[in-house]
Amino acid sequence: MASGKALGESGSKESGTLVLPSDQDASGRTLGAEELEELRQVIESGMLFSVKGTAVKSLEKAFAEKLGVRHAFACSSGSAAVHAAVAAVDPSPGDEIVTTPITDMGALTAIVYQSAIPVFADVDPRTWNVTAATIEPCLSERTKAIVITHLFGNPCDTEPILEMARTRGIPVIEDAAQALGATYKGKPAGTPASIGCFSLQQGKHITCGEGGLTVTDDDDLARRMFLFINKAWGYGDERPDHYFLAPNYRMSELQGAVALAQLAKLDEVVGRRIASAAKLTALLSDLPGIETPWSHPEGVHSYWKYCLRVDPAIIPDGAVGLASRLKDLGVQSAPRYIQKPAFRCQIFAEQKTFGKSNFPFDLARPEAVDYSESKYPGAFEGLERILVLPWNEKYTDEHVNYIAASIRRAVGRE
After folding, report:
1. Which residue from 99, 239, 286, 359 has the highest number of Cβ atoms inside 10 Å of its Cβ?
2. What is the pTM for the complete model shown?
3. How far is Cα 129 from Cα 150, in angstroms, rounded to an integer?
4. 290, 308 in Cβ contact below 8 A?
């Protein structure tokens, strides 16, 4: 968050500012001897190909056991995980998949690559998550699946969404790329729905640089995802073939080795993030114009990031102004998270897809591609008010106290 060279877990003060751990280097990551040992074993084996190696298979087995599911499959990225999940429900061209306009583009292009139409639901401006109430108006006879994103580590109110989908026979995919370690009603985020997707990218709770995982209890969906990650080649089949169109999304043994060691550290990583977030919440709870993160009473937020809601009627220049003042105090933050809802990006607004074809949007119902601002009050309000603070497991009380003091000073309360 603060500029300057990372100086380890405790940080150091330079020119009156505290250098904070960053997940973009070793100061904010838990990478160490355990990962090196797993890598050593893989390299000495000489086998870096996961189909014939052991590290990725061990990761998949350990991840499935950790989340209490029957199947887990590793792949090359979180985007690949969502793509495998979408492919598993097998949409036909022009089918619709309901999703959120506040997410990483990798979770949306997967839908378009499978020739389906993303239909954007509005969000709750307190959590920036979709809800059953915002999804329901988006459903149609063409709806093939629903993707719910647990943004910033804060789980959606999942049960009403699942019940609504169940009555209509629609599968639900949980994008838990930012929510590893979060829970909802005692279950790990990513497990109650038909498929869960996770990311191991550099800044996630645990990392191998890039990488992803999908999970499911459904044997048929598991088969489809396994094949999709492997060019649809039936490894282990009596008479294997390339059964359908699919890419190579495999994870290497090197990534698997790092991820396997990281997985053993997950509980400690999440516990530290939750504890430091709780401390910051307590320190900011009395500030007018600042709302600390809200979670469902039966959900556990795993804090990929720590997000404030900033009231522009009370805080001068709102989230953007607060971010500018924090930067002057050495604390980096990101107002808006993304600069505009996803449907305002050219891929959707101008249907920039495959050459000049506009495919698959040329198959869409007009209502499915109506991106009128009046349909998305929660998304526009949410993006106007959000201020995203980077977060990681190496924050100490000193770091949290410094962040809180900087915010209080920036809003004129210290």
Report:
1. 99
2. 0.95
3. 7
4. yes
Q: State percent of the chain over pLDDT 70.
A: 96
CA 170: distance to chain centroid?
22
pLDDT of the residue at 115? 98
Q: Give per-residue pLDDT as tens, 346-402.
A: 999 999 999 999 999 999 999 999 999 999 999 999 999 999 999 999 999 999 999
Q: Which class for 16: exposed (0-12), middle (13-18), buried (19 or more C-beta within 10 A)?
A: exposed
Helices (H) and strands (E) in the chain, counts: 13, 16
Amino acid at 45: S
By DSSP bridging, strand 143-149 and strand 117-120 are unpaired
Average pLDDT, the chain: 95
DSSP 76-121: S-HHHHHHHHHHHH-PPTT-EEEE-SSS-THHHHHHHHTT-EEEEP
CA distance 57 to 158: 30
Amino acid identity, position 365? R
- Reported as half-sphere exposure (CB side, CA atoms, 13 A), residue 40 has a value of 6
Q: Per-residue confidence at 414, pLDDT binned at 50, 70, 90?
A: low
- The set of residues, in sequence order, having a beta carbon less than 8 Å from that of 278 and lying 6+ positions away, is none
Q: Is the pLDDT of residue 246 over 60?
A: yes
Measure the CA–CA gap between 37 and 32, rounded to whole angstroms.
9
- Show which residues are catalytic: 204
Please, is 272 exposed, middle or buried when counting C-beta atoms within 10 Å of its C-beta (0-12, 13-18, 19+)? middle
Distance CA 361, CA 286 (A): 48
Taking alpha carbons only, the member of 252, 308, 328 closest to residue 74 is 252
